[in-house]
Amino acid sequence: MAGRVCDLSGDGRLRKRELRPGTGPPVPPSASVAVRYSGYLEHRHEPFCTNWYDRSHGLMKLGEDITLGGLEVGLLTMKKGEVARFYFSPEYAYGRQGCPPLIPPNTSVVFDVEVLDFIDSDESDMFFELTAEQQDTFPLQKVLKVADIERRVGNYLYLKQNFESAKDRYRRAFSVLGRRSSSEAEQCQINTSKLLLLLNLSLTYLKLERPAQALAYGEKALEIDQRNAKALFRCGQACLCMTDYKKARDFLVRAQRVEPFNHEINSELKKLASCYKNYMEKEKEMCCRMFAALGSSD
Questions:
Q1: Distance between start and end Cα atoms, the chain
Q2: Over the chain, what is the mean pLDDT?
Q3: pTM (global) more than 0.70
Q4: Which residues contact 274 (CB under 8 A, 6 or more apart)?
Q5: CB-CB contact of 174 with 194 (8 Å)
Q6: 105: helix, coil or strand?
Q7: Contact criterion met (CB below 8 Å) for 233 and 220
Q8: Cα dihedral angle (251, 252, 257, 259), rounded to 10 degrees?
Q9: How far apart are CA 136 and CA 147, in angstroms?
Q10: CA–CA gap between residue 205 and residue 210 (Å, rounded)
């Protein structure tokens, strides 16, 4: 049920009606937000702009990527999963000049907005604005938090099948974890974060159809944990993509020893056996043709 209209500006120029409540805390000012939206002229049913039915919704950084002042203010009142309708006067929308030909001058507009997700990336954004020397002075726990924020952004992009951007975020996160540790306990924390990113990078490069890089990151993960089933599996997948059947089998068998009942690993071994069988049949056929050609030349 739609809620009452709230006056966000105090003068009636920016109003909000909640159509569906959200959960959790409201969107913070430093967040990167994924939203669905449709913008309408007042008393019109067809939107002049919308991304509501797009397959993917990217993250927009508040204060940078959102040009509509009213929308920026409105988003700060919303929670994850919330749907709201905003009524923007020209001052909070497209101003006196409008945006011809879609928006006439001095026009009020209505926006329906749904907050799909948001990530508070303030600490990460601030960190990457610093020099390398300044970054080195940060406490380890803050560096690990920065890496985790970047990884979460990468995960969101990956789920939206934006693999190239996800890869860049994972690499950015990994880049901050190269510092020297002062103790074994600190190194263990760093390695735990590194392992997650290396596994994500290996998987993402597989999605990008770049198996050589997928293998390289998978092998780096194995340097941290030589019995990690996911790393072994990714390496096996990468080798299979490169038709290196022997190495693929070695990695996959090792993965199976760690997790003998893993469906994905066992399915990949069956796929490997089928690919190898087809490969051998083609090799045999080629040899037969070669010998037949030699025999006919005699």
A1: 89
A2: 92
A3: yes
A4: none
A5: yes
A6: coil
A7: no
A8: 120
A9: 14
A10: 5
